[in-house]
Structure formats: structure tokens, C-alpha cells
Amino acid sequence: MILKIIAFYFIISKPTNRLHLLEKMLQAEVIYYSVYKTTVAGEDRMKIPLFDLTRQYEKIRFEVLESIDEVLKSGRVILGPHVEKLESEISKYLGIEYALGVSSGTDALVIAVKALGIGPGDLVITTPYTFFATASCVVRNGATPIFLDVDEKSYNLDLDEVELLLAGVYRGSFEGCEVENSKDLNRKIETVKRVMEIYGLSTRSRIKAMIPVHLFGRTMPLDRLRKMKDKYRIKIIEDCAQSIGSQWFMDGKVVHSGSIGDISILSFFPTKNLGAYGDGGMIMTGNAELYQRCRKLRVHGAEKKYFYDEIGYNARLDEIQAAILGVKFRHIDKWTYQRKKIADLYEKLLRVLPGIKRLPNVEWRNNVKYHVYHQYVVEFETSEIREKVMKVFQEKGIGFSIYYPLPLHLQRCFEYLGYKKGDLPVSERLSETTLALPIFPEMRDEEVMEVANTIGEVVR
Questions:
Q1: Mean of per-residue pLDDT scores for the chain
Q2: What is the pTM assigned to this prediction?
Q3: Helix spans in 78-184 (H)
Q4: Where are the alpha helices (DSSP H) in 95-174?
Q5: Residue closest to 339 by CA, chosen among 370, 368, 367, 372
Q6: 14-61 pLDDT per residue, tens
Q7: Left if phi > 0, otherwise alpha if psi is -120 to 50, otherwise beta: which for 216?
Q8: How far is the CA of 426 from the CAs of 151, 303, 421, in angstroms?
Q9: Contact, 34 vs 53, CB < 8 A?
């Protein structure tokens, strides 16, 4: 809201006051989002925040103000050169031919699903352990989400279960399925059987697509996703809202998350690794026809102004936000390395502690960024330990959050699907035992040590 009224005050103010005005208003916007993320956990004054935009802003303040001033002086505030430049830069960065700036990650998902022709009667596989928009975009297009469980190590969609489900539907048998974790095969087969029962799936069912999420910044196995896409002729929408810059090594080269799907999306919510000072998102694809359709849907369904081919959306990326993102994009690799450094220090301090079941650290083999640490999520042995840690965090003023406190298959709005507690046990356990610790590029080593020491005081 603040950025939307900058233009008005800029116009009526004296030239000598304009940069000062911009700075004050932007500081207010930045402070709002820093406080927002730290008050989710129930505290509004924290010693160590979960996330802090103000420190980043202090380092890039003059670059940001200059970019906003440039937009306002130009008079082009809707779909101008900064949007086009950002689209071009991210397209090259990710190695995807087309990129389209939109109003949010949520709108990017809704448009992506619609552009693929997914609608009533279609089924879309996805994860219950994710943000709501990953599934709501399916329902908003009239289709039905199928929730499968997640892998207990990566927390990403369990591709063994996806393989079993697709084989069960299209071949009528689980025989010959390629699974990577045969140790838990029986449990996974039982989960898939239960899901097939819930939906009444048969060889006549229309599973149109899959939406894998690179959760918390960890890349899913892109080679395996591509193999499934080709094998079962299923559309893939990669949800990269949390994973810009994450990578995988396949076919003898490094590729980015978002590069193997039919279409993929980014979110520029302020807390993301590349975040705006407001909402924003992006759609990426290597398909020219999909790109053109998304481009129409972004502006009400019109290819030519005032001539509408279909019902679309008002979903443009704001020019001011694009200018800000352009400034931040210049720093994205440096910030990613800083996140990795923080994650490595956390691992060094936490791996010796009892009561912790799993840390999220992934080695960057040959400097391939398999995880970009949008969040640093720790899994405790029990929910009781997590509760004790949260209590002490609150007392000490240390930020935290639970991603996610109730998996989507158990949310009230999805009751009509027919899931019950116990159907997807890994997702349900993670919702009770995981905790996101503070992490942002400007976080200081002593703050990381304080967080780790506090956990140690609780679990020892």
C-alpha cells in the first residue's frame, strides 16, 4: 500500500524533498515486513528476528531509492522497462527462454494452471506440506488436488509415491515401479492405496499434472521429475516460490530449479531470497504458446488492448517493484552464499545436540547449489521438545515459525476430499516436530550461536 501512494506524494512534493520522502516511506514498508515476520510467532519485540529486511535495506538503500526515483521521473509506472529488464535477467539466470512478471506468486500459480488447460474433471498431484497457494490454484481453476506424502529427509513431495500412484492408475499395477527408498516401500504402497481409495482412482482417471515444490529452497531431483514427465506424459508446474537460484546436476551440466517443468513460478514476497517491498511473482516457460497465453491472462485476457480473447486477470508486476527487484537481483548470488554460510554454522553447532532428529543441510558438491536455505527448518525428536524450545525462544526474544502447523489435507477447506488424520503420516509428523530458525543474509555469527546455545540449554 505504501509504495502505491509514493507517486502521488512524489508529484506534490518539492524536488528537494523527494528523495527524503522516498526514503522515509520505503523504510516504513521495510520495517512493516520485518515486524510482520517476527510477530507470527507471538512476539512483537525480538532480540533475534526470524527475518529482518531493515539490515538489508541499509546496505542497498541508495540503489533502491535511485531506482524508484528513476521510475517516477519516467512516468512509466505500469509494465515499463524495469519489468522487461527483470524478465530478461531472470530468464537468462535460470536458463529458461521466457519469463513474465506478475502480481504475486499465488497469481503466477493460478495463471500457470489455467494456461495448461487444467480445469473441471482434472486431477493434479501435489504436496500437503507447503503453502496454501500450491493447492488453492488447482481448486480455483475447477480441478481437484491429490495430496501425496512427502519424503522424510528432504520434506519435498515423495516421488516414490508419485511413481506408485501413476503406475497404479495408468498400468493398474505397482509392479516394476522405480523407487529409490525401498526400505519404506510397504508403507508407501499402503499410503498410495489409501489415496486411490479416497479418490476412487482407476485407469479411467484423468491425472493431468503435478505441482512439485522445491520446499524451503531445496531442489527436487530434476532428472527424476523429467523422467516421470516423459514416461507418464504428465504436465509439470514447478513451484519455485522458495527456491530461486537452487540447482541440480544432470546430463553433465548444472541446471536450475524451474527449468524442466512445462511451466514454473517464482514468488517475490518480501521475505523470499529475492523479495520485493510488496507482492510480486514471475512465470517461466520454454514454450512460446504457453508464454503468449500467460501474457494475455496477465492483462484480463487481452492480446490487443480492449479486445479480449478470454477472461483473464489483473495480474501485472508493478514497475516500482520490478525496479527494486532489479537492484536486489544484482546481489542474489552473494546473499545465497551468505545463507549457506549461516546454515553451515548452524549445522556445526547443532549436530552434536541430543533431541534433534534432522538438520536440513545439503552439501554443495562441486559448488552446485542443491539448497539455497530460504528457511532453516530443524526437526526435533518429539513435539514436546519443540514446545519447550519455542517457550524459551519467546522468553529470550528469539524469532521462530512453524512451517506448516497443519498439513493441507487436514485443513477444513479440503475436508470434502475425504482425508483423515493418519493418511499422510510423514507430513503430519513434520507439522508437529519441525521449527524454522532465524536465517537471513545479514544475520551475525553471534546471533546464530545464541540461537544454537539456547536450543542446547533446552535439550541437554
A1: 92
A2: 0.91
A3: 81-94, 105-115, 133-140, 159-170
A4: 105-115, 133-140, 159-170
A5: 372
A6: 555 555 655 655 555 554 444 434 434 444 445 999 999 999 999 999
A7: left
A8: 7, 45, 11
A9: yes
Predicted pLDDT at 180: 82
pLDDT digits (tens, 9 = 90+) for 388-416: 999 999 999 999 999 999 999 999 999 99
Alpha-carbon separation of residue 201 from 163, 168, 180 (angstroms): 15, 9, 24
Chain center to CA of 130: 8
Distance, in Å, from the CA atom of 126 to the CA atom of 119, rounded to the nearest integer, reads: 16
Strands 307-308 vs 302-304: parallel, antiparallel or unpaired: antiparallel
Spatial CB neighbours of 394, under 8 Å, sequence gap ≥ 6? 41, 42, 43
**Dist CA 406 CA 394 (whole Å):** 21
CA nearest to 22, candidates 11, 38, 33: 11
Q: What are phi and psi of 77, to 5 degrees?
A: -110, 0
Q: In CATH, which superfamily holds the domain spanning 332-459? A: Aspartate Aminotransferase, domain 1 (3.90.1150.10)
264 DSSP β-pair partners: 238, 284
Specify burial of residue 318 (Cβ count, 10 A radius: 0-12, 13-18, 19+).
Answer: buried
Measure the CA–CA gap between 313 and 388, rounded to whole angstroms.
46
- CATH 3.90.1150.10-classified regions of the chain: 332-459
Q: How many whole angstroms separate alpha carbon 374 and alpha carbon 245?
A: 10
Span of 183-187, 400-404, 435-439, 448-452 with lowest mean pLDDT: 183-187
Q: Look up the CATH architecture of domain 81-329.
A: 3-Layer(aba) Sandwich (3.40)
376-380/434-437 β-pairing: antiparallel
Q: How far apart are CA 379 and CA 94, in angstroms?
A: 31
Residue 136 in this model has a pLDDT that exceeds 90: yes
Give the separation between CA 303 and CA 123, rounded to whole angstroms. Answer: 29
In the chain, list all ranges with CATH 3.40.640.10: 81-329
Which triple of cell numbers denotes residue 397?
A: 526474544
CB 133 within 8 A of CB 317: no
Q: How many CA atoms lie within 13 A of 460 on its CB side?
A: 10
Among candidate residues 212, 216, 109, 113, the one with its CA nearest the CA of residue 162: 212
CB of 153 closer than 8 Å to CB of 173: no
Please state the rounded mean pLDDT for residues 237-255. 98
